[in-house]
């Protein structure tokens, strides 16, 4: 006998003579609106941030970043299946919602603020001028120097980036290889001003620094640059070059001698060598206007600081904003030396007797060459005359040199007295001696009665 399956028996039992009972209808399932989540939450970020836009059910997410409502307009709107990712690299305000095709989530609004670059990073550019063209460029951080590459023939910029830095002050200095030896050595190669950058890794807005500009041989916006070459036919031993930029009237009585002396000593410094005769220089961040460039040879003589300077107070140089002004200078090949005798009536009295032998060459076309040669005097025990020797190098050839001796007699200050005399081409005080030099070394003794 065939038997009915268990399911069939159950159906028969449920049926009477009227047939099966009618089934109750099942109500439609209630589908809720999707719930939207966006991580990370709005707020500051460093470098870039990647958002994850998710929904608790299968949905399409829509967003806009132009301020429009993505629920009411498709213009400027982006859509993607949830979960979607979006990477931001700048401050961005978003409006976002999710839709399951029938119902929409609430509108989510938020702004992610770019606080800076990656945490612990400093980035920017080294700005170099024509002075550093075709030279190796580098940047130093707290004394550690790394090369950026060789500069082209024109002024420009090199990008740089430091990463993985800690909180604290980071001192940045740009360099260029002045002597062409392939190395970047402080004090030997040229460097710009130091830029201090402070990082605080606990603060998103101070955890990095971007757009930092470090200058080498170049000036900031609105300022001017003075550059050129100084020629030394015979570099004198134990003396180095200094380039000072003085007010236009500095040598016309517009600057105190002590201030002038200090500015001459604190100019842009260049180390000289016995082999090199051409020395490039650059002075940056100058205010626009007329200035007086003064190259000097500075060293030590027998009794103190020796100075040999060139200047043309009748022809100041114009500095223009955002431009480079080129000004070249040339010292001469002649050395002038001799003996000094100061008669007892004019000689210094007391313990230390010292003075300055000042030499001055004046030319309407070239301006002034002035030399201060410090000397120490010894006293002749028989005559009580003061005696010494002097020597000055790098005088221009084929010129008339006027010499005058200044001593500390009667409490005088020979340094400022000599400086006042040599830089004033219209001084009426006569010299103690005059010598016409050619292009060979000369000797001239000076006797002061």
Structural topology:
Elements: H1 6-14, E1 36-39, E2 43-46, E3 49-55, E4 60-64, E5 77-81, E6 84-88, E7 92-99, E8 108-116, E9 121-128, E10 136-141, E11 144-150, E12 156-162, E13 168-176, E14 190-191, E15 195-199, E16 208-216, E17 224-231, E18 239-247, H2 250-254, H3 257-265, E19 268-270, E20 278-286, E21 289-301, E22 304-311, E23 317-319, E24 324-326, E25 329-330, E26 334-342, E27 354-363, E28 367-376, E29 378-379, E30 386-395, E31 399-407, H4 414-422, E32 433-437, E33 442-443, E34 446-448
Parallel strand pairs: 2-8, 9-16, 17-24, 17-25, 26-33, 26-34
Antiparallel strand pairs: 1-3, 3-6, 4-5, 4-7, 7-8, 9-12, 10-11, 10-13, 13-14, 13-15, 17-20, 18-19, 18-21, 21-22, 21-23, 22-28, 26-30, 27-28, 27-31, 29-30, 31-32
Describe this structure in words.
By secondary structure, the protein is mostly beta strands. It has three domains: about 35-115, Immunoglobulin-like (Sandwich); about 120-215, Immunoglobulin-like (Sandwich); about 225-449, no CATH class. The protein is built from four helices and 34 strands. The chain has helices spanning about 5-15, 250-255, 255-265, 415-420, and strands at about 35-40, 45, 50-55, 60-65, 75-80, 85-90, 90-100, 110-115, 120-130, 135-140, 145-150, 155-160, 170-175, 190, 195-200, 210-215, 225-230, 240-245, 270, 280-285, 290-300, 305-310, 315-320, 325, 330, 335-340, 355-365, 365-375, 380, 385-395, 400-405, 435, 440-445, 445-449. Strands 18, 19, 21, 22, 23, 27, 28, 31 and 32 form a nine-stranded antiparallel β-sheet that branches. Strand 27 and strand 28 (about 365-375) form a beta hairpin. The longest helix is centred in the first third of the chain and has 9 residues, at about 5-15. The radius of gyration is 41 Å and the shape is rod-shaped. The N and C termini lie far apart (about 160 Å).
């Amino acid at each position: 006998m065939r038997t009915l399956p268990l399911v069939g028996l159950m159906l028969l039992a449920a049926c009477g003579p009227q047939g099966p009972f009618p089934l109750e209808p099942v109500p439609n399932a209630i589908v809720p609106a999707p719930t939207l989540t966006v991580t990370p939450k709005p707020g500051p970020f460093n470098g870039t941030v990647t958002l994850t836009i998710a929904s608790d059910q299968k949905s399409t997410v829509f967003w806009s970043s132009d301020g429009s409502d993505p629920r009411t307009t498709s213009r400027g709107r982006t859509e993607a299946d949830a979960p979607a990712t979006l990477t931001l690299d700048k401050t961005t305000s978003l409006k976002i919602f999710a839709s399951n095709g029938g119902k929409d989530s609430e509108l989510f609004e938020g702004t992610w603020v770019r606080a800076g670059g990656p945490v612990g990073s400093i980035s920017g550019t080294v700005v170099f001028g024509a002075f550093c063209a075709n030279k190796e460029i580098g940047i130093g951080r707290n004394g550690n120097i790394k090369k950026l590459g060789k500069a082209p023939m024109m002024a420009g910029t090199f990008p740089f980036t430091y990463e993985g830095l800690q909180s604290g002050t980071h001192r940045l200095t740009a360099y260029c290889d002045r002597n062409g030896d392939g190395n970047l050595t402080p004090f030997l190669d040229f460097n710009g001003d130091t830029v201090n950058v402070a990082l605080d890794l606990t603060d998103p807005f101070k955890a990095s620094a971007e757009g930092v500009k470090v200058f080498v041989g170049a000036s900031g916006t609105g300022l001017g640059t003075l550059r050129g070459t100084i020629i030394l036919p015979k570099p004198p031993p134990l003396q180095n070059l200094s380039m000072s930029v003085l007010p236009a009237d500095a040598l016309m009585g517009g600057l105190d001698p002590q201030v002038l002396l200090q500015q001459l000593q604190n100019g842009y410094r260049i180390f000289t060598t016995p082999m090199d005769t051409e020395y490039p220089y650059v002075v940056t961040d100058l205010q626009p206007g007329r200035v007086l460039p003064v190259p000097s040879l500075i060293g030590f003589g027998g009794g103190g600081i020796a100075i040999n300077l060139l200047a043309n107070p009748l022809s100041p140089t114009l500095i223009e904003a955002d431009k480079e002004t080129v000004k070249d200078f040339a010292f001469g090949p002649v050395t002038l030396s001799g003996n000094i005798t100061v008669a007892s009536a004019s000689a210094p009295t007391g313990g230390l007797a010292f003075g300055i032998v000042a030499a001055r060459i004046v030319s309407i076309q070239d301006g002034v060459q002035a030399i201060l040669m410090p000397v120490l005097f010894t006293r002749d025990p028989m005559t009580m005359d003061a005696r010494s020797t002097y020597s000055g190098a790098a005088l221009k050839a084929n010129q008339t040199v006027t010499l005058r001796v200044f001593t500390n007699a009667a409490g005088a200050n020979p340094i400022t007295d000599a400086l006042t005399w040599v830089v004033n081409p219209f001084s009426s005080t006569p010299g103690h001696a005059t010598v016409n030099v050619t292009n060979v070394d000369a000797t001239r003794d000076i006797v002061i009665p």
